[in-house]
Every structure is written in C-alpha cells, then in structure tokens.
Amino acid sequence: MLRRGDTATAASRLGFVSGDDMIGLTRWIAALLLTATPALADTPSVSDEARTAAYMDSVAASPPRLRLFLQEMPKGGDLHNHAGGANFAEDYLRWAAADGLCLMADSYKLVGPPCEGPGRIPAAGLERDYPRYAAAINAFSTRGFEAGTGDPTVAGYDRFFSTFERFGAAYSRHVGEALTLARRQAAADHVSYLELSSGSRVAAELAAKVGGADAGDLNALYTRIAPLLPDAVRQVTADYDSYDAEMAQADGCGGTTPAPPCDVAMRYLFTALRTMPPAQVFVQLSLAFAMADTDPRFVGVNIAAPEHDPIAIRDYRLHMAMIAFLKARYPKVKLSLHAGELSLGLVPSRDLAFHIQDAVAVAGASRIGHGVDISYERDAPVLLRRMARDRVAVEINLTSNAVILGVKGAMHPLSLYREAGVPVVLSTDDEGVSRSDMTNEYLRAVTEQALGYRDLKQIARDGLQYAFLQGPSLWRDRAGGAMVAACASPDAPTCKAFLATSPKAERQWRLERELKLFEAKAR
C-alpha cells in the first residue's frame, strides 16, 4: 500500500503537482484508499501500526482532529528547547507582579522598582488593564505574527529576539518554577525526555573576574580561566540542586502519587551566547565544558543567540575554533551547535556558505540546531553525505523557522535532509515565545511537510536515539531496527540488566511500549 509520503514523491517526480498542491493530492489519495477499503480497520492481517497510519491519513486534512490524534502520540525527546524561552508571557507577568517589577510604557521592558516614575507601570494589577496586558504579551512573544497581527514593519527575527531582554528581569528569581513549567508542558505533549539549553548567572560573574582579556591567545586565556573553574562549577551545581528540589516539591515527585512531569527525564546543554565580546564567549564556553565534564545533568555544550548578529557573524569562525580548542581538552563532551539559522537576504550570501560546515568539521558537532541554510552551503551535497554517514542529526524547528526566517512549506530543507539520509528530529526551540508546543510541531510536519505516521514515529524514536542522555542505545544501528544482543529476547534477564545500566536504552524501551499502546487504541 502506498504511503502518503510515497504518493507525494511519485506525483512530484512525474511533474503532475508541486508545492502545496502536492500535499493536497497526497491527502486525496489517502482518503481514496481509505474509502476504497472500508474494512481496513477490521482486517486481522493489518497491523496496529498500519491502522494507526491509515487513521492519521483520514484526519490529516482536519487540523482539529489531527491535533487530537497527535496530542496523544508518544514523542520521544525534545532536544532543542531553551530555558526561559520555553515559558509563556503570562508566566513572566505573574512573576513580575509578585516581585514588584515595573513595565516601561514605551518599550514594554520589565525593570526593577520604583514604579511611580513617569513611563513606568506597576506589573501588579496589570491584568485589570487589558490593552496594556495584551500589548505586554505581544511584546514578550510572537503571538499573532503568522496571522499578520502586530507592526508589519518589524521583521520576525527582530520581534522574536527582542522578547528576551524585555522579560529577562522576571526570569532570574524564578528559574526553578520556569523549569517546572517546561517539564509540565513536555509531559502534556507526551515528550518523555527534555534536553534544555540553559546557562547560569555564574558565567557572567566568572567573565567579570577575567576582565577585558585578549582572546587572541586561547592557551593563555584558558590558563587564566582554569584555576577559577572548580569553584564556578560548584556554584552552578548548587544552583541546579536547588532547582531540582523545587521541581520535585512542586510536582510531588517524592510522594506516593507523583505527577506525570516527574516521569519526564530532563537534562541540560550548557549554552554560551555568541553575541558577547570574544573573551566573554570563551569564558562561557570554558565553564560549559567544565560543567558537562563534571555534572551528569549537563550532557553537552551549545552556543546560541542570533546567528545574524554582527558580532556573531564577525566571530563565527573564532567561536568554532574556541569550541575545537576546548573539545580537544574535554574529548568526551558532546556538542549540539546552532548553525545555519539564516536565510537568503538576512545576511550577505557569503555568510550562508560555511556555518554548518564549520560546526561539523571544525568544532565537531554531533547535532546541528536549525540548519536552515544547508542548500546555500559550499559543497552542500558533500556536507549532506558526511552528515548522513556520521549520523549528525539536525534539530528541526518548524514554527521558529517560519516566524524568524520566513522559511516554511516547500522552502524548508526538512525534505532535503531526509532524502539525503541525514537524521532529523522535531523540536520546539522557544515554545513559550513562539506560542507553540511539540504537538504543534508534529502537526506542522504533517500539514506542511506531508510526513506520514511512520515518518513521525521514526522522528520520535530518533529524538531519543540522538539524545545525549547517558548510556548505550537500545538499537544496534537504526532506531526501530534490530535491538542490541542483550535484548534480542525482550523478556530475557539480560535485557532487564542492560536497561538498568543505560538511561538512554531505558527511555527507548519505554517509548516502544508507549507506541505499542498508542497504536493498539481503538479509533
């Protein structure tokens, strides 16, 4: 039986349809197949997976029905989700009111008290002033952007990246609560593993101790930083111990009836900001590598912030060299790097030609965040083959890419990566700022990218296969293929012992069980 993706590809190659028409034809063929075989759901020889795939095809043209289906689908891991950006504007306004913060009337930026001065509005009680409350939500997010609301002269990338400075003052004293809410959202979306890009106030304090150092000699700069790292690591560890305790208390994780979020495994990628002066970026990266080498909650290192920022553009190759320098000293630390979050016209064309390449070949990234400009990379076919061969996964953020870069539908390179054999995962990026969630990312993959149920199932499995969660995989090679020898017989004592020693394999085992139950559900 033809799958939706198969029919779309065949029709496109024959020249019958293109773009959105291809997706429409796919829907029509799927519906035709279902109506032509009304007894499909009652046929004993048809697997639960096939019935589930057919059901998804039958509701794919109805986003509300598709949403109901996808909401319940087990989704593996979210590997690209930013702490802070994962939270919603309403949360920041609530925290701001509790802390006595003020809202600047002109910029809608949160600042400290006093709030009695001109142009300052107390955050407390703001919910009773709906026009300003609504404007604050819009200023803290990209709400309505894709629907065409807001100032049309403000580009998506400016609207998105301006939000963080506006709500930042409300985040610092509520990190534990923010992480709690992010984990709760993951549980609501049936995401079992969350890898949050996060940082620490300690990085800024460490940078201040180093001062205005020169980053021209990385050996000399690291020699200055290294003696300060052990104490900095202890401070970060203590902070995250307190966050863990706050999350556990909030959801009753130590009690007899823990809430569902307690079952979501959460790890962190210590993330440096690429828009700072070079020495400060190197300090952040040094602390990031030290944390990932010391604290098992930090499973890797990342670098983020607007890739089109003039400092980020100027120093991109320097940043990759910094990461390579530290990677040589911490060879076991894994890297997921934002690269290629760019589009034609956003930057000079020459800056589209090497970012993903350098992240992979110079810095040694195991995963790439975004990777949108892959088709503009110099020797892109060679790079794609290398990524496929080395299993360098790409974290796809459909809503974020549509809002920030205006890249969606047929313009998005998701199909290019998949055709090249490069592993891909779906992720949320900054779901609070984007007013999205993981279920919506899966929905967009169906409605905009013509992915079928089996495609989504592979992506859900790969969300754990390419996670940096500790331990060997449950799979010998490809996720969903043959299991490792210890689990060749699933009920064998060797399998139970293997799962007990590998957090990654244990999560993968759970996902398979959850997918089996999901597919067996009557619809």
UniProtKB/TrEMBL annotation:
Q: What is this protein called?
A: adenosine deaminase
What cofactor(s) does the depicted protein rely on?
Zn(2+)
Q: Which domain of life is it from?
A: Bacteria
Is Lyase a UniProt keyword of this protein? Answer: no
Q: Which family does it belong to?
A: Belongs to the metallo-dependent hydrolases superfamily. Adenosine and AMP deaminases family.
Q: Which GO terms describe its cellular component?
A: cytosol
Annotated Gene Ontology MF terms? Answer: adenosine deaminase activity; metal ion binding
List the GO biological process terms. Answer: adenosine catabolic process; hypoxanthine salvage; inosine biosynthetic process
Q: Recorded E.C. number(s)?
A: 3.5.4.4
Would the keyword Transmembrane helix be found if you checked this record's keyword annotation? Answer: no
Among Pfam families, the record links this protein to:
A_deaminase
Residue ranges annotated for the Adenosine deaminase domain, each copy included: 262-470
Q: What is the lineage of its organism?
A: Bacteria, Pseudomonadati, Pseudomonadota, Alphaproteobacteria, Sphingomonadales
Q: Which UniProt keywords apply?
A: Hydrolase, Metal-binding, Zinc
